[in-house]
Write a structure and sequence with these properties.
With about 140 residues, the protein is α+β, with helices and mostly antiparallel strands. About 20% of the residues lie in helices and about 30% in strands. It has a 4-stranded antiparallel β-sheet with strand order 2-3-4-8, with no helix packed on it. The longest helix is centred in the first third of the chain and has 25 residues. The protein binds FE2/S2 (inorganic) cluster (FES).
């Protein structure tokens, strides 16, 4: 490859690399408040329709692998949906107010504590911070 040919190819490739982030940024303007600033955090917009069940105390939603509960006025709690026994997905049983695992019968409290095994350890509990109309879960 001739030197000038290499420079031309590098210039085209570099332009694509430099403009790609701008394309993604232009798409995110509408839902800017939903974009996490940290890849390890989840941001929930409490004004979104998908968060409507968090508008009342006792409400809950699922967000990815997380169950988010509203436990009081401006108080929220977030638990992992991944069972600590063998990683099955748990769901909240609102009527019984506990979190059973369908695979082997473990049950967890709404704070994540083990109520009965075989799971031996609590569900992962996340930090939840209310910032304006957003929950920041880390
Ligand atoms: S994976 Fe949940 S009880 Fe076994």
């Amino acid at each position: 490859m001739e030197r000038i040919e290499f420079i031309k190819k590098f210039a085209v490739g570099g332009s694509i690399l430099l403009t790609t982030p701008m394309l993604f940024n232009s798409c995110s303007d509408d839902d800017e408040d939903l974009v996490p600033t940290n890849p390890d955090e989840v941001v929930i917009n409490l004004n979104a329709a998908s968060s409507a069940d968090l508008s009342t105390v006792g409400g809950f939603i699922y967000s990815g692998n997380i169950i988010v509960f509203r436990t009081g006025d401006n108080a929220y709690l977030a638990l992992s949906k991944v069972c600590t026994h063998s990683q099955c997905t748990v769901t909240y049983n609102h009527a019984a107010e506990n979190v059973p695992c369908p695979c082997h019968g473990s049950r967890f409290s709404t704070t994540g504590a083990v109520l009965n095994g075989p799971a031996a350890s609590a569900l992962k509990k996340y930090n939840v911070k209310l910032e304006g109309n957003s929950l920041i879960i880390t």
